[in-house]
């Protein structure tokens, strides 16, 4: 037993200073030190940039920590502590909460979303000539609920089966949720709110929370929840009557879009069909979509990948829709996705442009640019008759810079069904100089 204890308790044998093992260990450490020295040899300019960036990040983190401490001490009501009588308890399991890491709302509330440089006053005036000024305010969820209440009263008066009435406890619960969402900044959403997508009368329950008063961050979290847990029909109504009015109101007031609302639009593209039917189509059909709104919403389409089928359906719908200025901007963005389109969509786009053959108004530059993008991308998929029609169109609707490019694309391209290696495939529509 004593021998075993000695084996366990005795430390490793001491190596004398002159031993080979110690010298070998010392030799092994030298290459690693040399390697570390080589890694540290960076240019002075790069090292200074790294140090400056590190100091800036450290100051930003310290400032955020100080702000958080001041907020919690000065106004404890901003902490999302849900009242127990409402049953608003946090989930036991960890939820994937996206709180815009690396984004400081106090420092740059609208930082990267200012599109004023992309807008031209003359171009805005031309686009506004195609907009309607007679339409009233856009419909919101509140308008839909008021209509349903009136229908309910009419059903009661006629003896029909009325809609079921919500319990007082449910009403109080979701009114309390609405008050919390008005001040929401980060963290988990109330558990009661996560059950809204599974409720039969989800619109009525959502109306109790007053979505028009939600904070931008609460709108983002709600969009995440609904886009993930609702069907296309339901989430389309949420986009159309809740998200879109809020986005347009924010752009109208601030001339730009809040970062969280911009991220909400990006999350909304999780369901492309609902995004087109709930955001893009109502925006164009409203006849009041400004160029600023089109640029901001269009930047989402430009950055995020959309399935080709949904892009084809969107182009077909926009081409057949009544034209109101900013429609050309969305058409141009979808064309520049460079997807292979069915011939039916190409024919609809040709018919869309030919509608302006007899139009006496001066077309905005974005209209000419959308036609140029169409000619550049799909010139080899157009028929001989389509090219002849478009040539006569641009001779009447001319732009001194864009029209020559359109004619060049149409003249120097093959027709639909012809092969690349056929030298006679290039059909010259007009031999006259531009």
TrEMBL record:
One of its GO terms (molecular function) is snoRNA binding. It comes from the Eukaryota. InterPro entries: Bystin. Transmembrane segments: none annotated. One of its GO terms (biological process) is rRNA processing. It holds the Pfam family Bystin. Residues 1-41, 59-97 are annotated as: Disordered. GO terms for cellular component: cytoplasm; nucleolus; preribosome, small subunit precursor. Belongs to the bystin family. This is Bystin-like protein. It comes from Perilla frutescens var. hirtella (Perilla citriodora).
């Amino acid at each position: 037993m004593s021998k075993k204890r000695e084996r366990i308790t005795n430390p490793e044998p001491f190596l004398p200073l002159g031993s080979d093992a110690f010298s070998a260990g010392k030799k092994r450490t030298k290459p690693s030190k040399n390697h570390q020295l080589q890694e540290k040899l960076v240019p002075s300019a790069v090292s200074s940039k790294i140090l400056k960036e590190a100091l800036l990040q450290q100051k930003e983190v310290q400032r955020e920590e100080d702000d958080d401490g001041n907020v919690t001490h000065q106004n404890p009501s901003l902490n999302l502590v849900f009242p127990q009588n409402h049953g608003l308890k946090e989930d036991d399991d960890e939820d994937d909460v996206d709180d815009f890491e690396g984004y400081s709302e106090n420092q740059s509330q609208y930082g990267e979303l200012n599109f004023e440089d992309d807008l031209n006053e003359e171009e805005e005036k031309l686009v506004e000539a195609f907009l309607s000024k007679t339409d009233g305010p856009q419909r919101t969820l509140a308008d839909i609920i008021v209509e349903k209440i009136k229908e309910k009263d009419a059903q009661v008066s006629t003896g029909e089966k009325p809609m079921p009435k919500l319990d007082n406890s449910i009403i109080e619960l979701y009114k309390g949720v609405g008050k919390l969402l008005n001040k929401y900044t980060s963290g988990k959403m109330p558990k009661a709110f996560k059950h809204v997508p599974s409720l039969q009368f989800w619109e009525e329950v959502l109306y109790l929370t007053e979505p028009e008063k939600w904070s931008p961050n609460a709108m983002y979290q709600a969009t995440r929840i609904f886009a993930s847990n609702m069907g296309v029909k339901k989430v389309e109504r949420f986009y159309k009557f809740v998200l879109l009015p809020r986005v347009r109101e924010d752009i109208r007031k601030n001339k730009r879009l809040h970062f969280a609302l911009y991220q909400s639009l990006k999350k909304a593209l999780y369901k492309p069909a609902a995004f087109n039917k709930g955001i893009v189509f109502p925006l164009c059909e409203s006849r009041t979509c400004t160029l600023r709104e089109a640029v901001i919403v269009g930047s989402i389409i430009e950055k995020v990948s959309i399935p080709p089928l949904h892009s084809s359906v969107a182009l077909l719908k926009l081409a057949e829709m009544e034209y109101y200025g900013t429609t050309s901007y969305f058409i141009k963005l979808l064309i520049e996705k460079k997807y292979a389109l069915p011939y039916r969509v190409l024919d609809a786009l040709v018919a869309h442009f030919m509608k302006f053959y007899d139009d006496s108004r001066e077309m905005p530059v974005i209209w000419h640019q959308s036609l140029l993008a169409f000619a550049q991308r799909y010139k080899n998929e157009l028929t001989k008759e389509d090219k002849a029609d478009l040539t006569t169109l641009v001779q009447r609707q001319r732009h001194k810079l864009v029209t020559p490019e359109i004619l060049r694309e149409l003249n120097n391209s093959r027709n639909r069904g012809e092969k690349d290696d056929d030298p006679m495939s290039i059909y010259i529509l007009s031999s006259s100089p531009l």
